[in-house]
Fold these 4 entries.
Entry 1:
Amino acid sequence: MKRLLKYLTQYKKECVLGPLFKLLEATFELLVPLVMAAVIDTGIKNRDQGYIVQMCLVLVALGVVGLVCSITAQYFAAKASVGFAAKVRSALFGRIQRLGFAELDKEGAPTLITRMTSDINQVQNGMNLTLRLLLRSPFVVFGAMVMAFTIDWKAALIFAVAIPLLAVVVFGVMLWTMPRYKQVQSGLDRVLGKARENLTGVRVVRAFGREGTEVQAFEQENNALTHLQVFVGRVSGLMNPVTYILINLATLVLVWAGGLRVEEGAITQGQVVALLNYMGQILVELVKLANLIINITKALACANRVADVMDIEPALQEKPGASAPKPEGQGLSVEFRDVSLAYPGAGAESLSHISFSAAPGQTIGIIGGTGSGKSSLVNLIPRFYDCTGGQVLLGGTPAGDWPLEALREEIGVVPQRAQLFTGTIRENLQWGGGSATDEELWQALETAQAKDFVEQKPQKLDEPVAQGGRNFSGGQRQRLTIARALARKPRLLILDDSASALDFATDARLRSAIKNLPYGQTVFIVSQRASSIRHADQILVLDDGCAVGIGTHDELLQTCDVYREICESQMEKGGEGA
């Protein structure tokens, strides 16, 4: 929690004024039993109606002033806690945006979503309650005990015995529940992960008729979380009844001892009522304090989970003073020198000793079976991952020596999964080229073979795009993502199996249009279709993470068995027809 407190610095005034007004309210509340004692001992005893009315007006005044102080304290506490949560959420989102793919793979999307939503909400609630009650409740408890001692020290000894016993109960439950609440949040991560997985793969689940199995698996995770929450809740639930028992026992003893003191003439009946009122105040405040501690316990567990993500240092770091190399031409050269890649926690390398080079303006085709490492290889170029062995050079400069922003400005990436964002077609295309004019956007759409269907839309470039682009077909989404990459006119274009939803004719027109672009960029085409890469300047054939062939289409048909098998499985006459 300490690591997050720096986000409260902008709310120092609210953090002081909130508790201060709560203490003022508590002070007025502590005066109420004394006024009641005066009403009983003076007004009622002497049958002085004027005095009784006067004291009742004092009680009303104390109540009104206390209410104003309470509302003011709530305002400042809410302003500080909501602002604090907003800053923490913004900082956490910024940290997640800076994490590399390796850290995102390790943490997982479900737990990051939980920490940005549920965890930060718990921290916000805990902060709000802390500002309002953390000082007020102890102040009222000890203030009531002090006031009791001013009335009669012998009767007040009951307070001195009851309060430590109550503290043992409250803090004992807190120390036991704190680690358990952290386990509850981890269980929530697992439930969210299972739900997200099923929502993402709902078509696959239904296609294979696995609804029952998935429901059973979800219920298993959900029941485990429920049982843990019930168990922790039962222990936490003991706090209120145990505190009530102790307080009521103390009240019984106080009534008995107070009666004896009245018989002796040491105190008055009004003072006994005041002592009972103070005991009642202690009861209410200790119940509040017990609930406060439960909420603080949850908030601390959640704050530590949030801080754990904030403390993750991205593995991808820029070298101090790194500067972008001067442009060497329209395209960007790429060279792999004995490159290997092993994902964190993997038992074996995904890429092993890959060496090849691509000159500026060349088209490089990459082909291989499923899991051969095609996407892993192209992910090394924009530094989505860092190679674990060897070196990747762009424009003759190691990728690690480039500033990340400058490097990625030179590269247009079209990932395997076509992902569009809520907004309009224009806004999605301008992700790639923020300053692109409408004419340039239409040119990118034409090259990506998307111009025809965009022109048919009623609002054309201003046509709304739903979340994930679900109001477009798979092929349309792919063409729009290609247009988005082309809009920035990159010096290096990576098409990672991005035409899988296109028919052969559209795919051929797309490749021809990209090849004829005037700015002569270097192009990497990852595909499982031999026809998509057969005209590339170089073709890299991968098999189980190793480069088993490099050359042109005709050369590989003669020298590479893996490439020949792929072509024979897809084309007629051993790869000569498409």
Entry 2:
Amino acid sequence: MKGELRRLPLLPLRGMMVFPYMMVHLDAGREQSVAALEQAMVDDKVIMLTAQRDADIEKPGFEDLYSVGTVAEIKHLVKMPGGTVRVLVEGLYRAQIVNCYDEGDFIDVDVHEYEDVTEQSLEMEALVRVVVHEFEQWVKSSRKIPADAIVSVSIISDAGRLADMIAGHLNLKLEERQELLECIDIKTRLERLYGVLKREREILDIEKKVSGRVRKQIEKVQKEYYLREKVKAIHNELGDKDGVQGDIEGYRKRMRAEKYPDEVVKTINKEITRLERAGNMSQEASVITTYIDTLLDMPWNKTTEDNKDIKKAADVLNKDHYGLEKVKERILEYLAVRQLTSGQNAPIMCLVGPPGVGKTSLASSVARALNRKFVRASLGGVRDEAEIRGHRRTYVGAMPGRILAALKKSGTRNPVFLLDEVDKMAADYKGDPTSALLEVLDPAQNNTFSDHYVELPFDLSQVLWIVTANNLGNIPGPLRDRMEIITLSSYTEQEKLEIAKRYLVPRQHEANGLSKKNLHIGAGVIQRLITEYTREAGVRELERVIGQLCRKVAKKLVEGEVDSVSVTTKNLV
């Protein structure tokens, strides 16, 4: 550092700084800056340049400026329209502001000038070489500055000037540039500059990797798009506009429109790739399209909202069924507990009773009470395990089992599902469907039920299962253990009479096109039908007899014999 102080006009710089030996064009528009430049031109064309800490400050004070800056020589000055000044400056050397005088139109400062003292040693020579080499590699990698910069730097023998020239080429943050400017010791300056160059090269390498990865992805997408368009054009030329390619576009459109689980999306994309490779006329294409349609139609995420009003559920059951008080009370208790426990590990309800006592209609009423979809699968006579688990996709005509097929048809994964006549299943050499049903009805397993056709886990835990049977003894023990048995006994004669009046007679009136004016059933007629014409636990035969009676009346009305018929116990026979 020189011992004498030198007073110079100060030009604050916003968002930039100047290293020694740099030639830079500057635009000055502030009155204070213009005045400082004009004074410097009057004196010896030398001015102090230092950066502002905050570029937004319009009139900076001493505390708003960095204390170390660059003394520069004004090479050329031009006044521009609007009062601004464009000036060409060349950095001379480092200097530190000691005193600041803000008394006139501009700021005067007293500065200490720094001289670069180069240490001649092997270590310094080695440091210069590695910095130059690293700079050369950075120039080749970045391609942001001309290669001539390498030549201009390599011919510089002064280590301090070399460091400043290289630093001037780097696009660094203001804080980092200021740190390099404040490095008075040349060895320290070179070491810090070497670290900056290493970091910049690593950043460039990462940028190249990211850019290359993105470019490959874009090229892949563009290539796939080109190939799809080419295949589409070929199909159009062949008159197969709505063939396989049309199906594939439809599949992709459906996948974008709805949300599917990741495993399903992955499987469908894999099958679409196979479909693209298979010909439109190949047998495999038919199997693949059927499979994709099945996956897209399955209600993977679709549910309906339950009715949580237990009173409304009771009203529905009472409206649809007369009597069966204990049974209806047990169903309401079942629904209440299922609601409180969110249906987790709830027992499977099994309705056991003779034919015609209302097992199936009770299940339908439960669905209405819960505001759920109702699906039914009859298991009577089922012998093949594939009826439950589905067929493997090894041949044309394979299909899902009855469970997933019914859920696909319902369009929701939480319906009320009635498994009818579970006691009439059988087993043969094709497998035991009862064993397959164990997984379906087990709350600990059915959340990942696997169908042989779909081959993807499907969640059955939200389904409300209701099973019906006529004979409890025909249900295998392991399956019976998974269910809660609710017995529906036979109706009494009084219950049959009320059921006939409330449900059977109005239903048969409507089924046979009659009204109360056409047919009048007198007192005691229905009671006589119950006691003398039917002998059953339920009311199916009673409804058939009432229907027979209505048909005879309809025949008389159509023949024009009478306008209305009154049935009494005397003319019943």
Entry 3:
Amino acid sequence: MKKNIYRIAGVGVLAVAMLSCNKRLNEYNPGGATADATWTTPQGFVTAVNGAYQEQRAYYGKEDGPLISEGGTDLWFTANKISYANQVTKYINLIPATNNSSFTIFRLFYRAINQCNAGINRIDGAGFTDLGEKNRRLGELRFLRAFYYWHIVEQFGGVNLRTTETNSVELTAQRSPVSAFYDLIISDLKFAADNLPNASFYGSGIAGEYSRASKKSALGMLARAYLSRAYYATGQERTDYFTLAKNTANDVIARKGELGTDLWASPAELWNPANNKNNKEALYIISNSTNQQLDYDDNANRLHAWFLTTYNGRPGLVRSIQYGFDNQKRLQPTRYLLSLFNEQLDARYAASFQENWIANTAYTWNASAANTFGKAPSVIGTQLIPGQSLAMQLTKQVVADKATKPYVVYDINDMYNVSATDSRVGTIKSLTDFIPMIKFLDYTRTLPDAQPGFNDIMVIRFAEMYLISAEAEFKLGNIGAAVEKLNVLRARAAVKTPVDRTQAFQATTQASLTAAETLEEGGGIYFILAERARELCGEHLRWYDLKRTLTDEQFAAYIKKFNPDITDVQPFHRLRPVPLTELNALTNGAEFGQNPGY
């Protein structure tokens, strides 16, 4: 059952604890121990470690996560152009005084960091007699602290870096340089990689706790951290960090057998809901259980809903578990994202997006429906047979004679306008329909209208190591090695039937990676960004990718070019504002200062 663990928490989380009252947090605590007693025995200490995992679930599996990590980029816009989360999806009214999704992780991730610091500082008093077990628990805490701090420093820059527990009111805070954040992040991850076991140590299934941080988690996050850190460096230091990123990613790839990870043979297998639990490609997993008492809240993972389009109520279609819960749309793909896929060659498109819906209820077309959906009289009387008849098609192709098709059909020109200068981009035209992303469809739900989902979330996966290695190799001038790594993923992604397109889909030329790095030519890092979009779209990384690889001016220009519905983005939006509530809670708020531009 759930018990209450008491910890200090407050609105001023720059100091992590700036409120002189206790706030109750619901966490799974099977021992029922109070906070101080929890730290003093190995058994109790484990419940404190468990608590450090909690707040990541407020980001991964909830709407704030995709809104701030995928929204506001070149790939996504708010579904049907609704006015929702405008601050982070459109950069409208993104000001320190206005609450937005990024403020959620500021508050909750600092709370989690305080939990990590408490455990790291107190572990020597926990009575561990097994040094291996002690270092495993310390490795978990240090992995999590690095994980949370990576999100904080990338979103907010050099804010407040703390390595000790805060358990009383503190009303001042100091900024730390980004380099200091990364010194700690890298140190923590190296310790974690040295001391965490392989995932197989935890066993399999919920009882085996397979979603705990493991050696592959730490190494995967370390490769990501080295890559991010390199962009803040210059000269030899920059070269050194790109080299470390490449070497660490390559190390994970070379040790895949030992670490218990590998690429699936096809994108369809990767995203098959039957392969979701303990997915072999995952380096780090956030698990969810159908026993909702074990989840963060009663909604668990709702990623399944955020990227879907409306199909329920269309001729021949009713809401189903198979097609998903379509009543809480949040994000839809841009024309640019869809244009990145050549579906004749790249099987990632069919595995990631849905264009066709087969009827799941009997229906006969009538005059009223024909009029509503712009159909010719010849369609009236056509019967749709469940399990056989095509009921709806939303496609990135151009469809001729749509009026004569006995199913709902909207093509690319119905859904998007097209730029006069670049056919890859265009503003959104349709306010009702778009091609949905289906990576997160959840068949663990028991009712079509159920909001909670129980799928695991892959936070870091094996394919990212090839992309990190390729990007680092490119930055080091090793173009051939970069192409080689990209081609491994392209070989997996290539359409295999009825004709094997593997060779046709290989990036055999180096020209794309040696072209000038301009928006117009789309060469260099933009080629790598396009490949990352094809592989990782929707997976909580796109904003970080743009923020990492582009300068302030490039960031704003890139988003405006490829997502022309976003017109308010400015160069300073590469950082989020520090919440005004946090600054106001500090007596030295003016000295601490707001991020530039806000």
Entry 4:
Amino acid sequence: MNFIKNIFAIIIVASSYQMAIAQPGGGGLEAGEVEVIKEFDARLLDTEKLKVLPGLPPLDTASRKLNYTIPLKTVPIDYPDPSLRPIAIRKDKIDKGFRGFLKAGYGYPSSPYGEFGYNFGGEKKNYNLGVHLLHNSASFNNDFENQRYSLTDALLKGAYYLEEGGMAVGGKIGYTVDQVHYFGYDQTGGIAADTFLERDQIKQQFNTLGVGVNLFNGERNDLDISYNAGVDFYTMKDNFASDELGFNLNLSGTKWFNEKNPFTLTVRTDFTTYNDTIKQQLNNFYLQPNFTFHGDKFRVKLGANLVSFDDNFDLLPDLEASYAVLGARLAVFGGWKGDYVKNNMNTLSDYNPYISTYGKLDLRNTVYNQFYGGVRGNLGIIEYNGQVGYKKANDLALFQSDTTDLRRRFITVYDTVDIINIEGVITARPFKNFELTAAVTQNIYTLKNQEKAWHLPNFDLNVSATYLTMEDKLRLKAELYVENGVPYLDEDGEAGNLNGLFDLSFGADYQVAKNFGIFLNLNNVAANKRERWVNYPTYGINVLGGITARF
């Protein structure tokens, strides 16, 4: 307030001084002088400072409950696909393997052996082509004249993969010469005492030419469908003016669901025309659909086999189911399956090389209807598979010696047979590089018309062992074959049993160098001369050794 008063005082004094100067000299106030004793000094008096001490407000201990309402809202978020960037690793040198092999040897009795195979093409080429050649023969100089055989086989097979569409074309052509001799004729007297047979009279040679072509998908397609369309043709001739022509057409496709459940549909034809003194035809048509479902522990196959033959139509089952009780260690399975098996010159001569052809061959279908069940599993060092089954066979082929034939060839007789089958396989690997396998089969036949199942074995046992040593260069093997003596009819029509088979063999092959090796096989060291077919004994002990090469 004092400061404001001083300002007003200064203003009033200044105004009075101006007014005094502005008064006219002739009138108004009188002139005079003003003496300033002291200059004006404006000052503010010192103020007293108020001291204010800060302090915290009292705590609010009241409890408050707050409620919030948040609306739900789904916000779409697009996640980009992750990209994996592999870490670079050092590339190991990959062994390219070998394209070809050669195996050649000679044995006792006189038995040359040769085998050759080579595969053309490769990973960077869109084709592959393979060739395989085989020759094996033996001639035995013993009590049986002309006890000899010869087999020569040549096969050329390949495929070409088209660059677009994933389609591929395959083809094959093969030629086989299978030669045997009917040395089972009486060479000591009796039925052939006044008869001398030249070698050309007892030599049988089957010449077979086979050609096939097929179209299939060479790679997986977007529809997960695999397909195959093929045609196979063969012509077969023997030394006794018999010939056979076979034609097979196969169309099949498989659609995969969830990459593990396939549905397959197959349409197939199997035509056979046989000529000797008369013409026989055996033509089968097949329609075979099936679907297989794979679960976590079980697998089920549902299918059918529809067969048409000679104006007859037959519906056969194709059913199978399995369940993993203890994972891979134990699984149970069972099924019901039916099929047609053709008996013609091609199949019968393959099973019995001493079959009589010209004027004696009878072509038929064997119709099978089989129920089976069993167990299988893998226990680490042991794998096993065993089953029991019942099979009904209509027109099962049996074999009898034709005693009216000087060459002692065989003819077929057919019968309806009930078969109880028991079989099992065990493979053991108790330690590294050693493997032991044993397989046993027991058949019990019940025939409708015939007394016995002529020339069909009902028991056989095969045991084999292999051991790899010396840094995988030496492979040792041993094999045992045991089979019961088969029943037969003698010249008087009386039933008998031939001697059984006990064949013990040993073998070894040694890889001398990367591309060169040697082998030696000692076969039938027990010198068992069992007759698989009456009047036709086996060769006894025989030896074969030679060299191997790969390139």
